[in-house]
Design brief:
This protein has helices at residues 16-35, 60-72, 75-94, 102-117, 120-134, 168-178, 182-197, 234-251, 254-269, 293-309, 312-332, 363-376; strands at 39-44, 47-51, 137-138, 143-144, 159-161, 208-211, 218-222. Helix 1 packs antiparallel against helix 12 (363-376) and helix 3 (75-94) packs across helix 4. It has twelve helices and seven strands. The chain binds glycine. The site of glycine (GLY) has 5 residues, from loops.
Length: 384
């Protein structure tokens, strides 16, 4: 990891964070008794709907439990997280549709456990996952292929998506762990491709960029989970903010920090008065303006990482912005007193174009919220 932490002193946590942490711990203590070692994604009518372990969100619940375990040393939470990780063995060995979200899945399970406990089996699993992620790299276009076809007529061999910025840390980690730079080379080539093809001059980003998989030539862009090709999907923007800040952390490449800042400034300029983003920042009249609290939580984590990597005066700007978002999520979007709701943070939107999971708690919103509060309280160790 490059030595670029300029803000060596962690600022004091805002007073409200202690209560927030207690509220999180209390709620997760309850919800974990029902959810156990399963894989929640979106909460509907108060209960998390459970997915199969191959779904891209499989890492967030165990990752959240590791965040809590790191402080409480609650062995019950640890064993749930470990059981979730063990179930992913079946996915990696017997499921042929694994896609680039391998990064999300194994970073928050095996890498997290390895970093916290030194478990060798977790290191082996995470390295296996990193090798599979490397295998999706298309050297002609310098991109990691995102998905496999969603139906038999679809050809998405040449699709790359902004979300993959959050999968790159698995590759950087693999290079550090093995001292083999190949993983890092691939991550850098993908991140450079994102700089050239996804970032718009105003700091917004495309969700999907398409390439000819044979020649590597860019062929276009698609709206994906955003409203349209030229709109500005807020969670995609947050993937770019945090992903670029992480790529800077591992490489020290100034272009990545500049990109993280540019996307962060765009994101912050688009926030409504309560600091929690609408699911897309460029919606025509008449389209529902659902919030996406998960985009706010992820962006806040990215802003905190930018704050640590710039000089202290500049860092105050990014940290203050992150605190405003996290405080808004805690004080206005939380479900702390509602025992009938399992989600921690309300009002996330997973996929408006397919009208799926709109205005509901999302497990990745919960995860990034807990990561953000943990960081405000002084933790600097990242699973990413
Ligand atoms: N990575 C998929 C999503 O952000 O919904």
């Amino acid at each position: 990891m490059s030595e670029i932490t300029k803000n060596a002193v962690t600022p004091a946590a805002p007073a409200w964070c202690e209560q927030a942490w207690k509220d999180i711990a209390g709620k997760v203590d309850r919800t974990s008794r029902r959810i156990g070692a399963r894989f929640p994604h979106a909460s509907q009518a108060g209960q998390y709907v459970l997915e199969e372990p191959h779904w891209w969100t499989a890492g967030f619940w165990p990752g959240l439990l590791w965040l809590l375990y790191r402080e409480s040393k609650d062995e019950r939470l640890r064993s749930i997280a470990e059981e979730c990780e063990a179930q992913l063995d079946g996915v990696i060995s017997a499921y042929y549709r694994l896609d680039h979200d391998i990064g999300f899945m194994w970073t928050l399970t095996s890498v997290a456990r390895f970093k916290l406990t030194g478990e060798e089996e977790s290191k082996r699993r995470a390295l296996l996952a990193a090798n599979l992620l490397m295998g999706r790299f298309n050297p002609q276009g310098n991109f990691i292929r995102a998905w496999n076809p969603w139906n038999e007529h679809q050809d998405n061999r040449g699709w790359a998506i902004i979300d993959c910025m959050m999968n790159l840390p698995l590759l950087y980690w693999a290079s550090e762990t093995t001292a083999d730079p190949r993983y890092k080379h691939v991550a850098i080539r993908h991140a450079d491709m994102v700089l050239a093809n996804f970032l718009r001059p105003d700091g917004s980003v495309y969700h999907i960029v398409t390439f000819d998989p044979e020649t590597g030539e860019r062929t276009g862009a698609l709206g994906g989970q955003g409203y349209a090709e030229h709109s500005a999907w807020s969670r995609g923007t947050s993937w770019a903010i945090y992903g670029m800040a992480l790529s800077y952390r591992y490489t020290g490449k100034q272009e990545y920090l500049d990109a993280a800042k540019r996307t962060a400034h765009f994101f912050l300029s688009q926030l409504p008065e309560d600091h929690v983003p609408v699911w897309d920042f460029r919606l025509p009249e008449g389209v529902p303006q659902y919030r996406d609290s998960s985009a706010g939580a992820c962006a806040a984590c990215g802003l905190l990482l930018i704050a640590e990597q710039v000089d202290p005066v500049e860092g105050k700007f990014y940290r203050a912005a992150a605190e405003r978002i996290l405080h808004a999520l805690y004080s206005q979007y939380g479900a702390w007193d509602d025992e009938a709701e399992e989600g921690l943070v309300l009002h996330g939107t997973s996929h408006y174009p397919e009208r799926r999971n709109m205005d509901v708690p999302l497990i990745y919103g919960d995860y990034y919220f807990v990561e953000g509060i943990s960081r405000l309280r002084g933790s600097r160790e990242l699973f990413w």
